[in-house]
Amino acid sequence: MWISVLPGSACKKKNKYRTNYMSMSRREMREQVFKLLFRVEFNPREEIAEQEEFFFRDDENEITEKDSAQISVKFNRIINKLDDIDAALNDKVKGWETGRMGKVDLTILRLAVYEIMFDDEIPAGVAINEAVELAKKFGQDSSSAFVNGVLAKFAQ
């Protein structure tokens, strides 16, 4: 079963990879990882591989083969650390367990906490700034402040 939950998403078959395009910026790639990771909230874990396949087939995701591979690697690394990430979030954020958080905010936090804790290539300040930008774009009015406040606890 495939559930499309982000605005403008549609399930259409087309060429899997975009051609004659430049590689994505880190920000664009992070946004694609966020969109893919967002599906975790709506699908059982045993369907994650299928969801990943659907994601890369979507017309809106005109992604080069190289970018697709990088997005997939980062996504799967996050999935493999999801229990650790959620435990860290639950430990740092008193009174706001992951089960109570909004799905968009939680997805952004999971991505940023992964980058802070497990990705040595991304400085914590950059991960926090990028998460706040994602929250402004995809979250509610208070999301950016919430995300910033939570992630500040990881930067200490």
Structure description:
- 60% of the residues lie in helices and 0% in strands.
- The protein has one domain: N-utilizing Substance Protein B Homolog, Chain A.
- Mean pLDDT is 85; it is low at 1-20.
- It is globular, with a radius of gyration of 15 Å.
- Helix 1 (26-38) crosses helix 5 (103-118), helix 4 crosses helix 5 (103-118) and helix 6 packs antiparallel against helix 7.
- The longest helix has 16 residues, at 65-80.
- The protein has helices spanning 26-38, 48-57, 65-80, 82-92, 103-118, 124-138, 143-155.
- The protein is mainly α and 156 residues long.
- It has 7 helices and no strands.
- The termini are far apart.
Q: What keywords describe this structure?
A:
156 residues, mainly alpha, N-utilizing Substance Protein B Homolog, Chain A, 7 helices, 60% helix, globular, disordered N terminus
